[in-house]
Amino acid sequence: MTPIYGIKKTGKDMRVLPKTVIYDPGLSLSLPLEISLTSGMNAIAHAAEGLYAQDGNPIMTLLAEEGIHALAQGMIKLKEDDQDEQARSQYLYGAWLCGTVLGNVGMALHHKLCHTLGGSFNLPHAPTHTIILPHAIADNEVARPEVTKIITRALGVSDVSAGQALFDLEVRPSFSRLISPKRIFKKLLISPCKILIGIRDPLKIILSRLLLTPITALDLNNN
Hints:
By secondary structure, the chain is mainly alpha-helical. It has a single domain (about 30-215), classed as Dehydroquinate synthase-like, alpha domain (Up-down Bundle), CATH 1.20.1090. It has helices spanning about 35-50, 60-80, 85-105, 110-120, 125-140, 145-155, 160-165, 175-180, 180-190, 190-195, 200-210, 215-220. Helix 1 packs parallel to helix 3. It is globular and about 40 Å long.
């Protein structure tokens, strides 16, 4: 999300395309662990949504699975030692793969909700994606069961759903710490059309779940 447009929103535009991107694990060593982990989940979201994008393709699916796997393994290592440069290198490798997916296919369910929340309430980008992702993927699993198999395989599990597997990565910033439900409901009462425009019913259900119930494993199993 960029301020170039004058408001917080997303878009594909040459004005926001970086001229150079440097992937140097040494430069990321000072990045706090919490930000590193939520940034990794944000990258995983790009790959996960690429798996069911309308314009997806087999090549992007391969990159997405490898990207999710690399980031998940990197998370495990970073939790043990956030100064592990090899883990940081693996993390950036996964981030590049997931970013490549984002640059080649469209995003969908998960990103629509995150961008609406982020733009409407000025929420921090990576933590918002981290909180929403397991719920969005869980909500979509009935319609796209093949996506579950790819995500769980990438995460190295086979006995739980994709939404649950993402939740079990244990990167769990508090939604209530980002914004109070009272503030959301107040803004919905003032300008509901502006906030909810374009949000399909499944996304409204996810938003309601996040506002009204704790984020627990039980929530994900009861979609």
